[in-house]
Amino acid sequence: MADGVVTVLGAVKRPRREAGTPAQEALALKDALAQALAEIETLVGCTAGDASDMLAFQAAMLSDDELARPAFESVSAGESASAAWEVAIADEISGYRAGEDAYFSARATDLEDIRDRVLGHLTPAADGELIPGGSVLVATDLPLSRFLGIDWAQGGAIVLTEGSPTSHVAMLARARRVPMVVGLGAAAGSMAGREALVDAASGEVVLDPTDDTRTAFAARAGRAEVDAAAAAVFRRRPAATKDGTAISVNLNAASAEELQGIDPAICDGIGLVRTELMFYGPGGPPDEDAQYEAYRRILVWAQGRPVTIRTLDAGGDKPIEGVTMSGESNPFLGVRGIRLSLRHPALFQTQLRALARAAAHADLRIMLPMVTVPAELEAARTLLDEAMTSLAGDRIPAVRPKLGIMIEVPAAAIAVDQFDADFFSIGSNDLTQYVTAAGRDIGAVADLADPLNPAVMRLIASVAQHGRDSGRGVSLCGDAGGEPRVIGALLHAGLRSLSVAPQSVAAAKQAIAGVDLRGATS
Amino acid sequence: MKDETAAEQATDRAELINAVGLHARPSVKLTQLAKTFDCRVEIALSADGPWVDAKSPVKVMRVKAPRGAVLHVRASGKSARAAAAALMGLVRDGFGEAMDQPADQSHG
Q1: A365 touches chain B (CB under 8 A)
Q2: Contact predicate A310/A273, CB 8 Å
Q3: β-pair partners for A367
Q4: I need a labelling partner for A186 at 20 to 30 A (CA). Which of A224, A346, A447, A500 fits?
């Protein structure tokens, strides 16, 4: 919500550019494109998260020769650089606007932003509207670069007569908590210079408000501010409970690509890397070098934070052609996880070698899924021994990673003391479905598959207790770790480390901060 | 003299499961990944084409592939199989974006 004076952002009139020779025009266009790209790359460097991604999109488009190719063709046919560029981009924009897909239509604004930035270098006199800080900015639509040029720290709001809630500016406005209303449809010109109250949550814009309306708005604004700020603040902070107990919050991920754009500072490490996704595809499983490279890139992202990588967890609901068994009557109780890897020793050995090679670069730990009996852990340990020996024989640098197991089969949870693992990680999704005998893929029994079931919680508490008694780390990497309603119970059960999806970090940390462990038995 | 063995070929396909299809951010990720491979990599919405260069964000955006569409990839040249597998891996992973969680996106 915001209260401010309306500034109307009009269409910028640009002086026409006289065409020089085709060679001069081509050079001018080339320079303008290069300068626009350099500016955007500078902006990328000083933004983060969504804003950075959006600018990266503009940078990617500008670095693609295909974008300006039609313009260069017109230039060589005698057109001025600015006219050629405007026509070429107009074609591209109309293609985006053509479909009914709102997301693609919204990207047209980014192209307009690119267009204007390049035009600004072709006709440098065109710039110049200054937006006072704290204004309620009214416009048909707002380009990203204009948004970034305004000092939103002084307050203010955006009201667009057109615009889209899925545009980059809308996403950025949400991220920076600038109130924004789109698709207002009113005539923008009549609003100039008048006081306006903007409530983005309700989509209300009140012109020339009375004192009573203003007071009511201010009260609502205060409450909304408190709620919104609360969650966001937690994302970057180290997680701690109300009584100051530190909690390790880690991320679940599947690839380095997925982590791009996420600041590693929001987490204490990667608690689960799902390696299955690499194994899909008609080319069959990735070779040792491809796996090594994939793991190494995740370690690079983590900047020294520990990374726990789970060996192939195929089978169950994750079949892989040519590897998993087909036609099992109950795949969740069939050959999956470590059971499958031990049946494919060559495949498993390749993964273990790749993991040990990557471990030479940073703190990498191996986690085995679906372990049921200690013999499976020991068989995997023997294979890891062989992998280390063969790597040493091949004179390939490698470090023996710690070897831990997932606790998701009730047999392992109940008899956890039987397993000589370096660490334990509770897979709450499978543990819950196996303990409650309620399949997570069956909607009709979904309410039975509740991690808060006391039987599940007692098992988690006993695994956490064993971890403390034996000095082995215990973490949890199921969906429950990211669910605010479950987090309190998990911490009271004795867990001090959770691994969650990147988008759950803020809410998880906020939930943790609300938990008071004083007086807890553990 | 021609080296026929050098022409490694690969095709694959995958459904776009992320919330909004092949829009800005996924297109950037896809093209960045494609550029890490030396081979030719192309995508299409049908096995019959039209095929577009997976290394060009402008061309990839023109495809306007929505959520639920099946994206086809074909690659030829050095490490073509790895390239096709990597690109489709990214698609199957929903480009690492938040999405409606199908069962196999959970993990424990």
Answers
A1: no
A2: yes
A3: A310, A404
A4: A224
Do A282 and B10 touch, CB atoms closer than 8 A?
Answer: yes
> Under an 8 A CB cutoff, do A277 and B92 touch?
yes
A257 vs B: CB within 8 A: yes
**Which residues of B are the active-site residues?**
23
Residue numbers of A annotated as active site = 168, 477
Closest by Cβ to B93, choosing from A67, A277, A429: A277
Nearest to A317 among B82, B89, B104 (CB): B104
Residue in B20, B57, B107 closest to A429 by CB: B107
Sheet holding A157-160, edge to edge: A180-181, A157-160, A136-139, A2-8, A195-199, A204-207
Distance of alpha carbon B69 from alpha carbon B16, whole angstroms: 6
Residue located via tokens 């990207």: A107
For A410, counting Cβ atoms within 10 Å of its Cβ (0-12 exposed, 13-18 middle, 19+ buried), the class is: middle
How many angstroms separate the CA atoms of A12 and A32, rounded? 18
DSSP-derived pairing of the beta strands A423-426 and A473-476: parallel
pTM of the predicted model as reported, rounded to 2 decimal places: 0.52
Task: Evaluate if residue A46 carries a pLDDT over 80.
Answer: no
Asked if the Cβ–Cβ distance from B81 to A283 is below 8 Å, we say yes
What is the Cα–Cα distance from B41 to B88, expressed in whole angstroms? 12
Residues A245, A496 contacting (CB under 8 angstroms): yes
Ranges A187-191, A444-448, A501-505, B98-102: which has the least confidence: B98-102
B82/A283 Cβ within 8 A: yes
Helices (H), A46-187: 49-63, 65-76, 81-98, 102-122, 144-148, 168-176
CB A137 within 8 A of CB A162: no
Neighbouring residues of A387: CB distance < 8 A, sequence distance ≥ 6: A349, A352, A353, A356, A398
- Cα A320 to Cα A312: distance, rounded to the nearest angstrom: 10
Contacts of A66 in chain B (CB under 8 A): 53, 56, 58-59
Lowest mean pLDDT among A76-85, A289-298, A493-502, B13-22: B13-22
Task: Tell which residue, A145, A171, A147, A144, has the closest CA to residue A158.
Answer: A147
Start-end of H helices in A155-284: 168-176, 211-234, 256-259
Minimal CA separation from B87 to chain A, in Å: 10
**Rounded Cα distance, A433 and A427, in Å:** 10
First CA to last CA distance, chain B: 54
Q: Does A426 touch chain B (CB under 8 A)?
A: yes
pLDDT digits (tens, 9 = 90+) for A409-445: 999 999 999 999 999 999 999 999 999 999 866 767 8
Q: Which residues of B touch A255 (CB under 8 A)?
A: 89-90, 93, 96
Determine the distance in angstroms separating the CA of A189 from the nearest CA of chain B, rounded to an integer: 32
Residue with tokens 């008609």: A282
Mind telling me how many Å the CA of A60 is from chain B's nearest CA? Answer: 7
